[in-house]
Amino acid sequence: MSVTTLAPPIALPPEMLAEVERIRAAGVLGASGRLLELFEYLVGRSGDERPPKEAEIAFAVFGKADAEAVRDDPVARVYIHRLRKRLDDYYLRNGEASGVRLDIPKGDYRLVCVKREEAEAAAAETLPLVEAARPEAARRNRRWGLIAAGVAAAIAANVGAWAIFLNKPAKTDALIDTPMWTQFAHSQRPLTIVVGDYYMFGEYDQGVYLKRLIRDFSINSKEDLVHHYRNDPKNFDVYSDVAMQYLPASVAFALTDLAPLMQGRDVQVSLASELSPDRLKTDDILFVGMLSAMGKLRDPAFAQSHFGFGESFDQIVDRSTGKKYTSEALVAAPSDAMYRDYGFFSTFTGPGGNRISILSGSRDTAVMGVAEAMTHLEPLGRVEKQTEGVKDFEAVFEVKGQKHVNLEAQILVSYELDSKAIWTGAPANVTSFPTK
Asked: Which of 151, 174, 242, 380 is most buried, judging by how many CB atoms fall within 10 Å of its CB?
């Protein structure tokens, strides 16, 4: 679906039109796609006295026609958030050349043109007066202090989670005797736990000062980084390896639930980015992590899958029905609001008769929710009932969350998988994987 640019009923100010053209020319929203369509729609409606409602955007940009679906579908809010962030990132990188910038006010669905002085005044009001009076250098130091604090908090969360994992009492043997896990638990093969990791690299100012850390889903190692910028002299010295990879805290918490399956096994641990393809045919493999961090397991997991992705890993698409499951975790993160996240579980036979199981989700809440649902007897019983004892299957879960805590997980839809078709050269699904 494409959205035609509308002529606004009320003429926009010249400085706003100039800024719109600047954003278009910069290509920051891509050559096509929903973000660009949403931007063009808002340009066409920003001259209205009344800004569009969420339902109008859902209908005009995303083709939502069912009133009940619109009421329960957060797609407009999610994309407004992404568009606002993309504009923020653009101005952070490029500044306000004309002294103004485009913005989307919080709680509003329209574009406005904000003068630099107004933006600075609004920012100053949110800081203590003494902070607002500090020179720019001091404010930069404060921002880096906040970044450092965030990194420290993430590290603390991982350390705390691993401590729980190491000290948590083992469950009873009931789990390893369930139809879902008995073959996995009693296998004589080596067991490789694959954890979804993220590679980060740095952007440098003048080749010396680290400005920020970057995560790009298409760059997953130092080698990828060098290859990506090898033919780009302009940026070759701007981006550099900083020897940093990290694991989400949800991985450690999920492993505490999966611990009984590892008892008595020859267990190896591998980062997804470093998984050897040889292990795909010799080892039983259990992946734990987010959908965006599956590495080499991504292609076999989705080669015959009924599921795919939207424009980001926050949206799982059921290709059989067209139903879309969009995570609300990112949008709800700053508040105490409850939200829905979506998890993915897949289990199938590997090329050497080994077992491969994928325990994943769009965000942390979903990863933890699926792990709990697949290792606690009552919810696991519901999963086994819905899948009717099928050995190889995939499923999507809805996980209710609040403040990164999974409150409830339930299986929504499942499909049987043909494991042989994954490995024997049968036509694979053409799955487009997001890059952001």
From this structure: 380
d(CA 342, CA 361): 6
Q: Tally Cβ neighbours within 10 Å of residue 33.
A: 11
CB 186 within 8 A of CB 176: yes
The answer, yes or no, to whether residue 304 has pLDDT greater than 50, is yes
Which residue matches tokens 């994928």? 358
User: Between residues 161 and 366, which one has the greater pLDDT?
Assistant: 366
| 312, amino acid identity | S
- Checking if the pLDDT of 324 tops 50, the result is yes
**What is the rounded CA–CA span in Å between residue 27 and residue 366?**
33
Q: Contact, 270 vs 279, CB < 8 A? A: yes
Six token digits for residue 258: 């999966």
74 vs 48: CA distance, rounded Å: 23
Nearest CA to 260 among 374, 429, 102? 374
Token output for 383: 């999963």
**Beta-carbon count within 10 A of 316 CB:** 23
Contact 60, 45 (CB under 8 A): no
Query: With a threshold of 0.70, does the pTM exceed it?
Result: no
Q: With CA atoms as reference, report the closest residue to 257 among 397, 410, 375, 361.
A: 375
SS3 (DSSP) at 59: helix
Q: Which among 359, 254, 258 has a CA at the least distance from the CA of 301?
A: 359
Neighbours of 278 (CB within 10 A): 9
More confident residue, 236 or 85: 85
Span 82-121, pLDDT tens digits: 788 888 878 877 777 778 888 888 778 888 888 765 555 5
Please name the residue that has the structure tokens 């199981």: 357
Query: How far is C-alpha 174 from the chain's CA centre?
Result: 34
In which residue are the tokens 């069912």 written? Answer: 66
Q: Across residues 339-347, what is the average pLDDT?
A: 96
Determine which helix (DSSP H) or strand (DSSP E) holds 397, and give its type and residue range: strand 393-402
Question: Which strand ranges, in their side-by-side order, compose the sheet holding 315-318?
Answer: 307-309, 315-318, 324-326
Q: How many CA atoms lie within 13 A of 14 on its CB side?
A: 1
Q: Comparing C-alpha atoms, which of 356, 372, 361, 365 is closest to residue 395? A: 361
Residue range 125-159, pLDDT digits in tens = 443 433 343 344 444 333 333 333 343 444 444 44
Closest residue by Cα to residue 196 from 258, 155, 251, 257? 251
